[in-house]
Amino acid sequence: MSRLRRLTAIAGVAAMVTGAYAQPAGATFAGPNGLVAFVAHTGSGNQIYTVHPNGHALRQITDVDGEALAPDWSPDGSRIAFAWNECNIALMDPDGTDMTVLPSETPGGCETDPSFTPDGTRLVYERYDPSTEDDAVWSMSVDGSDRRPVTSAGAPDPNVSPDGEKVSFLGGTSEESSAIFTTALDGGDLFRVTSPSGVAFKHDWAPDGQRLVFTDNANDTSKPSNIATIRPDGTGLRYLTDNVRPDQRAYVGSYSPDGRWIVFRGEDDGNHGLYRMRPDGRALHTILPASDFRPRFIDWGAR
After folding, report:
1. Domain 3-302 falls under CATH 2.60.130.10
2. Is 116 helix (H, G, I), strand (E, B) or coil?
3. Which of 34, 49, 122, 266 gets the highest tally of CB atoms within 10 A of its CB?
4. 3-state secondary structure 165-234
5. Distance from C-alpha of 131 to C-alpha of 107, rounded to nearest angstrom
6. So where are the chain's domains?
7. pLDDT, tens digit, for every residue of 125-139?
8. How far apart are CA 192 and CA 170, in angstroms?
9. pTM confidence score
């Protein structure tokens, strides 16, 4: 596992919003809304669950040997890519069947955090090679062939923009300085989108590509964490939540495929819940009420 990935993995700790909302201001691609996928601890490791956006039909869909992490829906909602045991990439159907593990081509290293391209034919992923200490974004076909490097400027949580032209990812030298960067698919035009404010591991593109949603102060438990959106050019920062206490924390999952909702995990005084709100921070709805059940790596799929 890369140094930065170890630092930012704890940013998946999500949280319930109880503060006021701002005034209206793994990418999610446009389509009708389907199931929400996420990771939770089962008592014997982390596994992937799905649930309807109204909170109905909560279901554990993996029971793999080890752990299943970082689910990402294909654009049409027919497949889920995920990280198996941190360092291997696998795919499965939405009910957990027809699982395929892609053979690693990084001996002794990690291939993880897969995310589909808008046409569904390729995956971008984090590749850590311990022999060179190279932590990089790569891409490959969904069958594991045609592997190509994208950038070594950073690696965790790569996401392709809805127009297929850019890859966003987490970069920085420490948990306090982590920020969202973008680059072209050929590795050019590297750009830092957000300030180095301890951005959480999980972020997402709006389906129209106009904004990115992220969480700040992810690893600083002396401060509250809040959800914000920003344009890809780094302008137009808008906070959607307004938590003020350190034990009030909000961590984003993703946009809904229709772009009308943002799903996130919340925490208040140690209790965790799964929620959705409008992209302006209004109309908060509970999907799963606050409890000790902790959803992580949240991604909303198409139907």
Report:
1. no
2. strand
3. 266
4. CEEEEEECCCCCCCEEEEEECCCCCCEECCCCCCCCCCCEECCCCCCEEEECCCCCCCCCECEEEECCCC
5. 9
6. 3-302
7. 999 999 999 999 999
8. 10
9. 0.89
